[in-house]
Write a structure and sequence with these properties.
This protein is mainly alpha-helical. The protein has 11 helices and no strands. The radius of gyration is 20 Å and the shape is elongated. It starts with 5 loop residues before the first helix and ends in a 5-residue tail after the last helix.
């Protein structure tokens, strides 16, 4: 497969954009390669010149979408960092990502795939949720190394923090029975989450 020429690269982008839009709107099974070709303004044969099959196109389209959503990285801490401010800003970045309309649609798509035990669900999870988890664990490792929090199992720290930030509230949002929190509500959620987290993991000298 050669996508190195400008026209090929442009078609490649058109196909990925069309695929992303249709997968998010109609689900994995709800759209066909014919529909994607029509949306992209190319032939179905052109799609197969770029992607082996629907599954590989889905993987590429979703990974690209996740990379775009996750392009903002958590803070790099230093000894001079105001930790609680950095912690709050990192929480806000996470909520900004989670509550994007595209991110909510991605969650619905992941649930659809997981419900049928589709192996694409794991690839999807690794490209989205796992990246955010890795970012949080790196943040907590930095914080412990600098003495801002107790050194502990970073997975447990990440699980606690995300449970506090999202919890049952996020499930209700995905089910459509609760609205996305307003900016003011998000600030209150972040403040309460950090306070509870620090009750457990504040350094002994604090």
């Amino acid at each position: 497969m050669n996508v190195g020429r400008p026209k090929d690269l442009e078609k490649h982008k058109q196909i990925l954009l069309a695929a992303k839009n249709l997968f998010l709107k109609q689900g994995y099974h709800g759209c066909s390669m014919n529909q994607i070709a029509k949306e992209a303004g190319v032939t179905k044969l052109t799609i197969y010149n770029h992607f082996q099959d629907k599954a590989s196109l889905f993987t590429c389209a979703i990974e690209q979408t996740c990379e775009t959503l996750m392009e903002t990285r958590p803070f790099q801490l230093t000894a001079d960092s105001h930790f609680l401010d950095a912690f709050a800003q990192t929480c806000q970045i996470a909520l900004n990502i989670v509550y994007l309309p595209e991110a909510v649609k991605l969650e619905h798509l992941l649930i659809e795939l997981a419900a049928e035990q589709n192996p694409l669900a794991l690839q999807f999870y690794n490209a989205s949720h796992q990246k955010m988890c890795d970012g949080w664990e790196d943040f907590f490792q930095q914080a412990a190394a600098l003495g801002f929090i107790q050194a502990a199992d970073v997975e447990q720290q990440r699980l606690l923090l995300l449970s506090l930030l999202l919890g049952l509230r996020h499930l209700e949002i995905l089910l459509g029975v609760r609205a996305i929190p307003t900016p003011q509500e998000q600030q209150e959620i972040i403040q309460q989450s950090i306070e509870l987290f620090m009750l457990k993991y504040a350094p002994a000298s604090a």
